[in-house]
Amino acid sequence: MSRTKSVEKLSRAEAAKDLERLASEIAAHDRQYYLEDAPSVSDAEYDALRKRNAAIETRFPDLVRPDSPSHRVGATPSEKFAKVVHSVPMLSLDNAFSDEDVIEFVARVRRFLGMKPDAELVFTAEPKIDGLSATLRYEKGVFVLGATRGDGNEGEDITANLRTINDVPLRLQGRAPDVMEVRGEVYMTHANFAALNARQEEEGKPLYANPRNSAAGSVRQLDPAITAVRSLKFFAYSWGEASKLPADSQSGMLQAFKDWGFKVNPLTKLCRTIEEMTAFYRDIASRRANLGYDIDGVVYKVDDLRLQERLGFVSRSPRWAIAHKFAAEQAETILEAIDIQIGRIGTLTPVAKLKPVTVGGVVVQNATLHNEDEIARKDVRIGDTVVVQRAGDVIPQIVRVVVEKRPKGAKPYNFPERCPACGSHAVREQDVKTGETEVARRCTGGLICPAQAIERLKHFVSRNAFDIEGMGEKHIRAFYEDGLIREPADIFHLEGRYGAGEKAIMAREGWGEQSARKLFDAIDRRRKISMDRFIYALGIRHVGETTAKLLARAYRTINALANSMKGDEALPELQAIEGVGAVVAEAIKDFFDEPHNTKAIAHLLEQVKVVPAAAPRTDNSPVAGKTVVFTGSLEKMTRQEAKARAESLGARVSGSVSAKTDLVVAGPGAGSKLAEAEKHGVKVIDEDAWLILIEKA
Ligand code: IVH
Question: 661 with 682: CB under 8 angstroms?
Answer without folding.
Answer: yes
